[in-house]
Amino acid sequence: MQSLAMTKKTQLLQFPGLPGPVRLDDAYPVGKGLRAVLNGWSPSDLTGAKGAPVSAVSHEAGGYRVDSPYLDEPLERLPLASAVCGVLADMSEAFFEGRRGAATLHCGAFETGGRLIALTGHAHAGKSTLMARLSAEPDLVIYCDDILPLGEDGSGIALGAAPRLRLPLPKAASAAFCDHVARHAGPSDDEYCYVCAPNIAAHGRSAPLSVLIVLDRRQEGQAALHQLGRHEAIHHLLTQNMTDFASAEDGFEKANALAANLLTLRLVYSDLEDAAALLRRAFVGHARINPAVSIGKPLPPLEPEGEAAPPADPDTSFKRAPNTALRAHGEAAFLWRKRGQTLFQLNAVGAAIWALLEIPGSAHDLVLVLAEAFPDVNYDQLTRDCCALLGELHADGLIRPA
Question: Is the N or C terminus of the chain more exposed, i.e. has fewer CB atoms within 10 Å?
Fold first, then answer.
């Protein structure tokens, strides 16, 4: 009888520009899914791949396991679309590693008239859904729905990945949009579906970034564009970046320089079709913006959706929730959960708290250790910060009472 090791089928997929291959063990559907969602970023050599894997996927009971050099523990029992997402995240990280110092924005972006319009904003602003809807516009070129690397000249660079749409579709989604998703559906599971439309920009395509739009989704009201002040634009460029800045001053200077060359706006909307139609009217063509489209006055600064979670009781012990992992990006750290979404960007204290939670503990327990590692932070402030973070992590299901 052959051993499992002898019967296991392994594929090594070497993608151009990456230091190592993607390893697939009995995970052919994941490789097929990667080919479906990527445009212009195909494996160049399936037999001579060298170096440590940038991502490793294996089939297991209940789904797939993704072992990543960028996560502190594997993601397990993933459905297909989430496994593809995890591998794409690893490939993106490996791509960024070869471009240290280059800026990377958390945004969606589309090209029209030879320039890029970027859409960003707080979580749940509808960025991915709107980018998937814009992929139904054949004259627009879709660069990304999540991550946009920038060149030194401020040009955006496409990774070549199709947008990933959260399911189910909004109840108000038009019949035409539903049909578009059905016709171009790629890898999918019960939560996500990749929309592999023909107008996805090929890997490596670039265009100058011209417009930055902050999304402001509301319950009702007609879509409208408003001015966005430089200070608020800089705030979003900093909070939505995935860049390793040398210092806070360096980050501000780079964000300020980038904002100086951009038209910065805020899109208030409630209806998906209304928002897409307004973006077409405003930006399709070679002018930076259609002068016939009215731009409203600045609005009060956006606040993150929802109220802040209550701080944790300092005496309650917590432990990490299953299938939650820490993804490193240079000096930055992001918490990921099983389905492959970035939920939190952690500062140094937050990353230390997460590391300490390998063993269950309360805020009081954690602060006793943190006080030695961060002697310059006031003890009471450290306790308040720790309780606040534990409260947020608990509210989002990333930790649970021990």
Answer: N
